[in-house]
Amino acid sequence: MDTPDLEIVAAGGLIHRRWFLAQTAGAAGLVLLRAQPALLAAQQDVPPWMKAPGQPLRPYGERSPHEAPVQRIVNSVPGTTGSGSARTPLESLEGMITPNSLHFERSHSGIPEIPPDQHRLLIHGLVDRPLTFDLAALSRYPLASRIHFIECSGNSRGLYAAQPAQSSAGALHGLVSCSEWTGVPVGTLLQEAGVRPNGRWLLAEGADAAAMSRSVPIDKAFDDALIAIYQNGERLRPENGYPMRLLLPGWEGNTNVKWLRRLKVTEAPVMTKDETSKYTDSLPDGRALQFTFPMGVKSVITSPSGGLKMQGPGLYQISGVAWSGAGRVRRVDVSADGGKTWAPADIPGPVLPKALTRFRMAWRWDGGPAVLISRAVDETSAVQPSRKAFLDAHGAAHSYHFHGMQSWGVSADGEVRNVYV
């Protein structure tokens, strides 16, 4: 019979989230106690690294060489120079913040090498006072720091395929990352420039060789947009827009223009090549949606996940991330039986608007086949749809903005694979 700490709340061995709140020896404590004799024996030996001084201090920190296999998944577009993506290895990370060196990257014509003292941001168009700013000038403004995710609208595109691709969580869903961004609110600069009454949109253009550009409603700029110049406390990395980028919290990644060089205030969207030839959503009836800016409520289990292997029956932690372009994640449910029964996961926090939110669920795997699924709900009560429901509504040719549920099948031998239910 289950103890209170191991209360089964859904089929497949899902355990009540209060298990994570236990402060005294319970199920987790018993696991630790069983391991004590082996640990005590190991402590009696003096390992080699205790017998001589270690490495000297370094001017810039490096990760342990034992973590070298944790890398982004790089995919370049054949026949191009610098066009492609580098995906975050979600299955290797924990918490909500993505290290700068593992933050996903999407580039359209390589990463420009921009001397910061030569870069300028121009604000012009329907304004009373056109303005230019260099990095030093922006750095003198009152800065704001916010934690937000950025997700490429092409993220999870592999789940449109008729057959499930056998890939890792990062390879399938790694075009999403979360950082603390620091910079100047766009609204502050627009107020200084004096936007004219007929100014309703912005053209944001980058300084890469593709001159990547998107149209942005000016209301978003006055709401929560930033000109970001720091990421996780240090200056932006080149692949993430150094020396400055546009940050539009919760909106599709392509609108968060990197290497930002100008903002032009206009009356209407400019219909650039990057918002007409791409980043539009085809519908089953032949129509297409444009300017699908906010990213839908979404979650993915990162452990266990594709390519990982269970180490025999026993107690495991299911871990993953959830997010929504509409605000905070309110709840994440987890199923271990392919969606027949569900239980609420533990969300340890912090839970921030338009940021990755970590969730966890205790799971006692009995060694039999299982199908793990997560389902997120945001503060607007929007519910993450199943893959089938999403495709029924949007069609398989949709290509962008996939936010249906991901299913991981666990076989009796412990292999974890991408499956459709």
Count of discrete domains: 2
Counting DSSP E segments of at least 2 residues, the number of strands comes to: 25
Computed over alpha carbons, the radius of gyration is 24 Å
State the CATH superfamily name of the largest domain. Answer: Oxidoreductase, molybdopterin-binding domain
What fold name stands as the CATH topology of the largest domain?
A: Sulfite Oxidase, Chain A, domain 2
Helix content: 10-25%
Q: What general outline do the C-alpha atoms trace?
A: globular
Tally of alpha and pi helices: 7
Q: Structural class, from secondary structure content?
A: alpha+beta
- On the 0 to 100 scale, the average pLDDT is 92
Strand content: 25-35%
Largest sheet: 5 strands, mixed
* Known CATH architecture of the largest domain: Alpha-Beta Complex
